[in-house]
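ugh ok fine here u go
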Amino acid sequence: MRMNPRFNRHRYLHLAALMVALCVAMPVLSHEVIPEHEAAAAQRLKADGPTETVGVDKVTPLGSVSLDGEISGAEGKVLRAREFVLAPGATIAVHEHQQRPGLAYILEGELVEHRNDHQGPIVRGVGAVAFERSGLVHYWKNESGRSVRALVVDIVDTGS
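structure:
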């Protein structure tokens, strides 16, 4: 029995398209929430808080712009925007920001933030903004029964 070459080519094209789609999606799935060296720094400081990030349903890169030529001294840096979706009960591990200023804007839901420059927890609801700078040690917890969506914008090294 001879197979139709057109059928096989069509099948292989679909397989190739699926492989390309998976390769494009992989960076999104493996995209780190916080840099490992920042989590390790918090551990060296014996910072109070969860040591593992859990319950992050999705991190979607929204875009970035190179800061080369935009700001003097910012060569090799990019301004990036990502959307985080955190399941109920999710935590973002304690970490110390190091040369990674940014902000988190809550789009949906409510998060509790614990940080070294504030006494007690801070409840951040829709429309709240948390500013982050070098030396900040903090972590997030979704203590609500709903998912949380946040826009996270930060400045990182090219390739991060």
